[in-house]
Design goal:
This protein has 540 residues and is α/β, with parallel strands linked by helices. 36% of the residues lie in helices and 20% in strands. It has helices spanning 5-14, 44-61, 77-90, 106-117, 154-169, 180-185, 194-199, 208-214, 228-238, 275-278, 309-320, 342-349, 365-370, 399-413, 417-428, 442-449, 513-539; strands at 28-29, 32-36, 67-71, 95-98, 126-130, 139-145, 189-192, 218-221, 242-244, 286-290, 297-301, 305-306, 332-336, 354-357, 373-378, 382-385, 432-439, 460-461, 464-465, 468-472, 479-486, 490-496, 502-509. The strands form five sheets. It has a seven-stranded mixed sheet with strand order 1-2-6-5-3-4-7, with helices on both faces. The chain has a five-stranded mixed sheet with strand order 9-8-10-11-12, with helices on one face. It has a five-stranded antiparallel sheet with strand order 17-23-22-21-20. Helix 11 (309-320) crosses helix 15. It is globular, with a radius of gyration of 23 Å. The N and C termini lie far apart (47 Å).
Length: 540
Amino acid sequence: MLVNVPRLLTAYYTSRPDPGVPAQRVAFGTSGHRGSSFALSFNEAHILAITQAICQYRAQERVTGPLFLAMDTHALSEPAWVTALEVLAANGVDVMIDSAGGYTPTPALSHAILTHNRGRKKNLADGIVITPSHNPPEDGGFKYNPPEGGPADTGATRWIENRANELLAANLREVLRMPLAGALKIATTHRYDYVSAYVNDLESVLDMEAIRGAHLNAAVDPLGGAGVAYWGRISERYGVPLTVLNDTVDPTFRFMSVDWDGRIRMDCSSPYAMAGLISLKERFDVAFACDTDHDRHGVVTRSAGLLNPNHYLSVAIWFLFQHRPGWRPDAAVGKTLVSSSMIDRVGASLQRKVVEVPVGFKYFVDGLVSGAFGFGGEESAGASFLRRDGTVWTTDKDGIIMGLLAAEMMARLGRDPGELYRDLTRQFDAPVYERIDAPATPEQKAVLQKLSPVEVQATELAGEKIETMLTTAPGNGQPIGGLKVVTANGWFAARPSGTESVYKLYAESFLGERHLHRIQQEARELIARTFASARPAAGA
């Protein structure tokens, strides 16, 4: 099962992608370009092209400040980091690399960009984070974060993607590059203490004094990820007892429990991948883990084991908006369209507006920067929130503060997040939520992507009147790339997968599992009818 790291790295340096093959081109999804050198979808040629394209994009956008460069612990991340630095240095870009030569979590990169840019109008910084998130050990990922600190918007990623593919097609002739030894010594390469900058600022976003005073028995498992050097420093800096269960870095990730399909993934929201930490739940008041780049969180409690991400988001929102008096009174809750409706009920009870956006953390960036969003979260266990004074902390997902927030809840309320979620269900009922994948051809996925509500022939769903059909997000009017159908006590959303021959079907019911299954079945039938009715038009 374990990835052969030498072969993976050899393929990174020796394989040459064919830009005429779609699967071997640069392709930016919701979180940058991802792939594997074994599949000719992530190798040195891709990184040379993407980095040169980013240099040209920065020049076009007049981004003249430093570029913060970060990597996680995947085997392909460090080779890609080296390649990127060689190109950045040759292009004369001021680059900020970790002063200890270590790994950098995605939220620490976002924090560094925003810290540099605070109060500035020019010489703004941006960044690159090299990570495929929680994906398997053979994968690589490469993501650009502009001066707003979070994931780049579609306009930026499309420009970078197109330019990188032009460079690939031209055999990289326009790529500038210098040897690593020179890139490390050049005056434009600077050392930056990411760990201290992030850790020393945590008290501005969390009540670290309350956590210290509660003397909780807390634990964390970095899952071999980019935050391994951070947790011990947090414990030392704030006097918080925190057991780091495993500080091993191993690119095979052999210490992981396998995921639901028998593959290794560092998915801190999966009960399969988190089996080791779940088995220790009785030993600790609260425990948490993060994925490889530490932008996602998983929280384990005695009362509930591993919390479902939607459950924890709901509790976090309920807690934060009652314990952050420094936030704007009109600060809203940001949620993705496929996150639980429990969030809407909690938001309404707090008299806070809930802003629903398409899938992708990039849609929270502007709101977090301005303070218009107190919190932004998505059902895949990614979230961030404002500093205690109502100013921006990060505009990318931050698994570190979401884990520590569970400790703050216990410190201030004396109850764990699992118990607090049960309280919410007594007040708002207990929803049942599930995401499943259903087969879909490329033609069917294209139909779903461009669907209009007028094309859907339905007035009821699972015995309830359909209240809303959405193909754009109500929070910002952006296309959702699919369909969402809402009733009083349930909903479903269907979106095509960007990489597999499936569509993703999300569904939720406040009337129990039988009602959920009925929603799922009728959703499949509705989508099948839509595919069938589109077939003659497609043939014509």
